[in-house]
Amino acid sequence: MPTRAEIKTWRSLHRGKGRRETGCFLAEGRRLVGEMLEWPGRTVAVLHADAAGAEPDVKKLLARAAARGERTEAVPEAVVRTLADAATPQPILAVGEIPAYGWDDVGEGAIVLLDGVQDPGNVGTLLRTALALGAAAVIGVGETADPWGPKALRASAGASFRGPVFRADAREAVERLAERGIPIWVAAADAPPLEGPSPGPVALTLGSEAHGVSASLRAVADRAVSVPLAGGVESLNVASAGAILLDRLLARTPD
Predict the structure, then answer these.
(1) Do both 154 and 245 map to the same domain?
(2) Domain span including residue 52
(3) 3-state secondary structure string across the chain
(4) Do 11 and 114 fall within a single domain?
(5) Domain containing residue 137: CATH number
(6) Are residues 202 and 128 in the same domain?
(7) Model pTM score
(8) What is the pLDDT of residue 68?
(9) Fewer beta carbons within 10 angstroms: which end of the chain, N or C?
(10) How far out from the chain centre does Cα 36 lie?
């Protein structure tokens, strides 16, 4: 049984302050726990409600955790409810250490910059889309929501465990991209539509839901692009626009 101090600490992972102070995050539900049991990072503990220990799917996850030598703990259902962020919590969750991704982990290929994207659901969806389409990294700058927060993690469906995802200072990002020779393209509603794939790796920058890409990044951008829209439609949700732009940017011709 976890100590009261541990439960208090894990409960703090709902908030950014708690995650920054502990360097940990909380993953809820069968899918995310299953994804965590595949990743190379450190899992601190896998917790499950007492009554759920005999459920076949939970039992399989606990067996996988035990095979990896992970700590597993049965706790009262009330504890699961206090730890979980979801309105209808699942009976299993896990605590993990936030991976220390950085620029050295970014390989070849397109990069996605999220500039002030504040909705965690949009952040998680963009992470999932970008990494699924082959982006080399997703990097948050400005006031972008924490990708390791519970809502963003749920929306990412575990994609955060599969590629470099981290935060950086915007000025540093510009300098690092320049060193790599990667141009910055920004998404902007008033820009020419993007019609086809990029000739090489680019850093696609997606801005906040309300204000778009910040003026400082637009000022240094090599190009601005948009999604072609039918008449009468003014804009798309940032996650939808980002998915369309990424699909066009990363489109590959059949071999």
Answers:
(1) yes
(2) 4-97
(3) CCCHHHHHHHHHHHCHHHHHHHCEEEEECHHHHHHHCCCCCCEEEEEEEHHHCCCHHHHHHHHHHHHCCCCEEEECHHHHHHHCCCCCCCCEEEEEECCCCCHHHCCCCCEEEEECCCCHHHHHHHHHHHHHCCCCEEEEECCCCCCCCHHHHHHHCCHHHHCCEEECCHHHHHHHHHHHCCCEEEECCCCCECCCCCCCCCEEEEEECCCECCHHHHHHCCEEEECCCCCCCCCCCHHHHHHHHHHHHCCCCCC
(4) no
(5) 3.40.1280.10
(6) yes
(7) 0.90
(8) 93
(9) C
(10) 14
From the CB of residue 228, how many other CB atoms can be counted at a distance below 10 Å? 10
86 and 114 part of one domain = no
Q: How much is the pLDDT for 253? A: 43
Strands 92-97 and 24-28: antiparallel
- Domain check: are 130 and 207 in the same one? yes
Q: Kindly state the tokens that stand for 133.
A: 């389409």
User: Tell me, what CATH number does 42's domain have?
Assistant: 3.30.1330.30
> Distance between CA 136 and CA 101 in Å, rounded?
12
Give pLDDT, residue 234. Answer: 63
CB 6 within 8 A of CB 82: no
Q: Could you say which residues of the chain have pLDDT below 70?
A: 231-235, 252-255
Residue position matching structure tokens 């749920």:
154
CB atoms within 10 A of CB 121: 15
Looking at residue 254, its pLDDT comes to 42
Total number of domains in the chain: 2
Does some domain include residue 254? no
The last residue of one of the domains, among 51, 78, 97, is: 97
